[in-house]
Amino acid sequence: MPSLQQTLHKVEGLLYSARMKRFHVITIFPDIVTAYAGESIVARAVKDKLIAIKAYNPRDFLRGKSKNGYRPVDDRPYGGGPGMVLAADPVVRAIDRALSAARKGKRKTKVIILSPQGKEFTNAYAERLVKRYDDVVFVAGRYEGIDARVKTIFRAEEVSTGPYVLTGGELPALTMIDAMTRRIPGVLGKFESLEESRTASPDVYTRPEVYEWKGKKYRVPKVLRSGDHKKIDAWKETRIAMRKKKKGE
């Protein structure tokens, strides 16, 4: 028999599912998205119908005849330059398909293009996306990028998860989906929500109290074993401040 907490968690989820968050990922490697969506908290949110995640492969939206059985989704950039660029048409058609159901249901939508030159993704931005939009489309680029007309057509926003360059936009898209999912009511259980709200620490420890490696003993800080939560939180705040100072924040 389910506990009261489990029942309340389920009811909250059902109430929220009337406005289920839907995440759409435009990618030429859809299996990356499918695999991640089947694990951990994200998978549980999908099962509870709190979110839905679907990948769209631009290759499925190509028009015209293939060359020797191969249908490229990219082409050389105008003006010259290294690498190839994802063509506008298959990407536009994939995004349009993703948005078609949202339009019928008059759902609020947002199109995001993952780009190292984009706006920085933060917890505050994740919270804002969750509150404002029902459907979010993530366009995961590859090669040298995506034809700029895609951004113009959908008034898309470029977003970055950090000052670095990756092979593609799939990992940043999944990072954003994970961060947003955790902020949807009903996704995190009571214990997880409590842990989320507590003071985090860059240094964490578990059993055993003393760990020995190559003749040297490494101990858990005494304050963490004290049971005094005020002192523990103060210790964590100090560690956080030290870490920020070290990072130059």
TrEMBL record:
Annotated compartments: Cytoplasm
Catalyzed reaction equations: guanosine(37) in tRNA + S-adenosyl-L-methionine = N(1)-methylguanosine(37) in tRNA + S-adenosyl-L-homocysteine + H(+)
UniProt EC number: 2.1.1.228
Pfam families hit by this protein: tRNA_m1G_MT (PF01746)
Gene3D superfamilies hit by this protein: 3.40.1280.10, tRNA(m1g37)methyltransferase, domain 2 (1.10.1270.20)
Gene Ontology biological-process entries: tRNA N1-guanine methylation
Record: residues binding S-adenosyl-L-methionine: 141
Keyword Protein biosynthesis recorded: no
Keywords carried by this UniProt record: Cytoplasm, Methyltransferase, S-adenosyl-L-methionine, Transferase, tRNA processing
Domain called tRNA methyltransferase TRMD/TRM10-type: residue spans: 22-246
MF term (GO), any: tRNA (guanine(37)-N1)-methyltransferase activity
GO CC field: cytosol
Functional description taken from the UniProt entry: Specifically methylates guanosine-37 in various tRNAs.
Oligomer status and interactors: Homodimer.
Family according to the record: Belongs to the RNA methyltransferase TrmD family.
Cross-referenced PANTHER family: TRNA (GUANINE-N(1)-)-METHYLTRANSFERASE (PTHR46417:SF1)
Protein name: tRNA (guanine-N(1)-)-methyltransferase
Annotated source species: Candidatus Yonathbacteria bacterium RIFOXYD1_FULL_52_36
